[in-house]
Structures are given as structure tokens and as C-alpha cells.
Amino acid sequence: MRTALVTGASSGIGHATAVALVAGGFRVIGTSRDPDAIPASALIPDVEYRALDLLDPPAVDAFAAGLGDVDVLVNNAGESQSGPLEELPGDVIERLFRLNVFAPVRLTQLLLPGMRARGYGRVVMVGSMLASFPLAYRSSYVAAKAALKGFATAARGEVAPFGVWITTVEPGAINTGISERRTTYIADDSPHRQRFRTMLDALDRNASTGTPPERVAATIVAAVRSPRPKPLYAVGSRAPLVFALRRLVPRTVAESVTARSHGLRIRD
User: Fold this and answer.
1) Fewer CB near the last or first residue (10 Å), C or N of the chain?
2) How far apart are CA 56 and CA 15, in angstroms?
3) Whole-model pTM over 0.85
4) What gap in Å lies between CA 57 and CA 218, rounded to an integer?
5) Where does the record place a coiled coil (predicted)?
6) Chunked in runs of 10, what are the mean pLDDT values of the chain (268 residues)?
7) What's the number of domains the chain is made of?
8) What are the residues facing 4 on neighbouring strands?
9) 190 occurs within a structural domain
10) What residues make up the domain containing 63?
11) 185 a catalytic residue
């Protein structure tokens, strides 16, 4: 039986992925900052819940050392952050990168040697379509997800000869309730306040009618089961159409379309 590790398995995409992997016959270890705080209704039978604070580097190292063999790693846990670039505090940007980039990269580094030695492994980075279609007031989040994809895309060429594949899954607007947990930073007297609020309202509307997390989970499991996973899977937000259009139209047009879909206009 293959063993899969899913970070952030207590809700949203991580929860749905853990459910799908259990149903697929995997032994699943799911992480949460505080497993004891997970509501009983959200607990998944047959998932081994373990505490992990991804913002604590020594804890990440100790956690990986006690795992044993892991065949599949789904780096899902992360923070959604919004705010005008000029008003984002430096410490919150650093925290976001520690959680969304450095921790999953470190966990991947720690598990890759075992996968390589066994001749089999799958690593899935859960990114965001915003990494491919950047949006105003989401610069820190866009940059973090783009960095995660960069690590994955480049490193897959290093480990593929050993039977280990790294891939990125980019969800679009997903109905996970993440809007309630998104961190926002904007000054009371910010000149961006009206446009920022417009963007957030559109973001929340899109998420409320977005793709269910189970569909993203199905994409993740399909990538895990593939004998040769693709570098990138995009799901939700009419992904096949918008990625095709991005290849056909100038980047300035794609930029304007992304902005307009969130109630914003970009001046020429």
C-alpha cells in the first residue's frame, strides 16, 4: 500500500484530497496545526492526523524524520493573502513565503531522497491559477504560488530519471470557504481602498460559485496515478479556454481580461 502525506488536510482541497486518496486505497497521513481542533464531523476515517506547524523549520525537519517511507506528497497547506503592494508589511510577506514556499520546498527536500532510493515518488504542489494570471492586490500570493511552481517545474527534471515526478496543480476559483480565512492588509486612508474592495468582492463572488474542492482532489489523484504526470494541471475557472486564449492573445489583453473579471480596469 502506498503512503501519501497531505498537508492542510483539515479543510478545503486538502480534506477532499485526503478523502479521495483513502478511497483510492492509499494510506493517508494528514497534517494540521492542531488536529485536536478539527471538528468531529470533518474527521476522515482511516486518515492518520498529525500535528505540523509549517512556520517552524525545526518542527518540519523533526516531523519528516519520524514519517517513515512516504510515496506521495501533496503540498497543499498555505495562506491566502491580499493587499496593495506598497502597504504589505514586510513581516507578513516573509511569513507568507515561509508557509507557502519555504516549508513545502523543505518538506519536499526531506522526502525526495527516500523516493529516489525506492525508485518511485509523486510530489504535487497545490498552486493557483493566479500564478499564471496575476491579479492586482494579490501580488504576494501570486509571487509565492509562482515561486512554488518554479521550484516544481525545474526540479522535476532532476528527479524524473529516478521514477519521481513533481507536478503543480493550479486551481482557479474554488468554493472552499477560504475567503473567510484570507488575510488582508490595507491602510485606513489607502488610496487603493475602493478598488481593493471591488477586487475582494469579485473574488468572493467567484469563489462562492467556484469549482468544488472534490474536483481539484480528483485532478490531484489523477496526477498521482499517472505514470508520467504533466508539469501543470489547471482546474476550474474555465481553465482549458483561458489557457488557450493566453497563448493566442497579447499579454496586455490577458492582463486586462483578468482585471475586468474582478471588476477592475487597467488604464492604457
Assistant:
1) C
2) 22
3) yes
4) 30
5) none
6) 96 96 98 94 94 97 96 96 97 98 98 98 96 94 98 98 97 73 91 95 86 94 97 82 74 82 76
7) 1
8) 28, 72
9) yes
10) 3-260
11) no
